[in-house]
Design brief:
- With 231 residues, the chain is of the alpha/beta class.
- It has a single domain, classed as Rossmann fold (3-Layer(aba) Sandwich), CATH 3.40.50.
- It is built from 7 helices and 8 strands.
- The chain has an 8-stranded mixed sheet with strand order 1-2-4-3-5-6-7-8, with helices on both faces.
- Helix 6 links the parallel strand 7 and strand 8.
- The two termini are 29 Å apart.
C-alpha cells in the first residue's frame, strides 16, 4: 500500500493506492484500475480498515481473481468549501496522474469507479457525467446528491446504449436511502439498462459494508474477466 498527494490541486488531493503482489515482479503487465470512494465523515483509509486489502491479497494469491490496481482517493473536505471540487480533482488530475505513473490499462473498459454512501453518490455523478472514463459503476448503499436526483434520467439517456456501464447496486433492508435506491433501480429497468440489484439484511453502516467487501471486489474482477464482446 502506497500513499500519495497531488500538490498541484487545491486543496492537495491525497490518495492511497494498492498494487497487486505481482506488480513489481512482472514489470511487463498492465492492470485494470478501480477507484473506491469512502463515505461521508471518513477518509481514504475506510475501505482499507474494512478489509479490502486483505481480501484482495487473499483472492489473488489463491488465484480466484486476476490482479488489478485500487486507488482510494481522499474526500475529507466534504463539509467545507473545498468539498465540491473533489469530483474535478479526481477526473481531471488524479485519473491522468495514475495512468501516467502506474501501469494501468488506459481505457474505460478497464477503469471502474465505486463507493459507499456519499462515495457512491460521487461514483454515480462521475460515472454518468464522465461516462467516457468509467465502464463500471459500483453503487454500495447509494446516497445520491440531492441536487443530482432530478437529472439522473437525462444523464442516463445521454449515454449511448452501446456505452452503458456495468452497474452494481446494493443496499440494506434498514438503510435510510432504501427508497431512493429502489427508485433508481426502477429507472434503470424503465430505460432498459442492464444492472445488478441486491437487497440484503443490514443498515447504512460499516458493519454492512465490511460484510460485503469481498462480494464487491469479486464483482469488479468478474466484469474484467468477461470476454471482450460481453463488456
Amino acid at each position: 500500500m502506497e500513499q500519495g498527494v497531488l500538490e498541484e490541486t487545491r486543496p492537495p488531493q491525497e490518495y492511497r493506492i494498492y498494487l497487486p503482489p505481482c506488480y513489481d515482479e512482472m514489470p511487463g503487465l498492465r492492470y485494470p484500475v478501480l477507484y473506491l470512494l469512502h463515505g461521508q465523515t471518513y477518509t481514504d483509509d475506510q475501505w482499507v480498515r474494512l478489509g479490502a486489502i486483505q481480501v484482495m491479497d487473499r483472492l489473488f494469491l489463491e488465484e480466484e481473481i486476476a490482479p488489478f490496481i485500487i486507488v482510494f482517493p481522499d474526500d475529507r473536505y466534504w463539509n467545507v468549501e473545498a468539498g465540491p471540487g473533489f469530483g474535478g480533482r479526481l477526473v481531471d488530475y488524479l485519473v491522468p496522474y495514475i495512468d501516467q505513473n502506474y501501469r494501468t490499462i488506459e481505457d474505460r473498459q478497464h477503469r471502474a469507479i465505486g463507493g459507499m454512501s456519499r462515495g457512491a453518490g460521487w461514483a454515480l455523478r462521475l460515472g454518468l457525467l464522465r461516462w467516457e472514463l468509467f465502464g463500471t459503476l459500483g453503487l454500495h448503499s447509494l446516497a445520491a446528491f440531492r441536487d443530482d436526483r432530478p437529472f439522473l434520467d437525462d444523464w442516463l439517456q445521454s449515454i449511448p446504449p452501446e456505452d452503458w456501464p456495468d452497474i452494481f447496486i446494493d443496499t440494506g433492508e434498514n438503510d435510510s436511502e432504501l427508497g431512493f435506491n429502489a427508485q433508481f433501480e426502477n429507472l434503470l429497468i424503465q430505460l432498459g439498462i442492464p444492472h445488478e440489484w441486491h437487497l440484503y439484511p443490514g443498515a447504512h453502516d460499516e458493519a454492512y459494508w465490511a460484510a460485503h467487501v469481498e462480494e464487491y471486489l469479486r464483482w469488479y474482477a468478474e466484469v474484467w474477466d468477461r470476454p471482450a464482446e460481453e463488456q
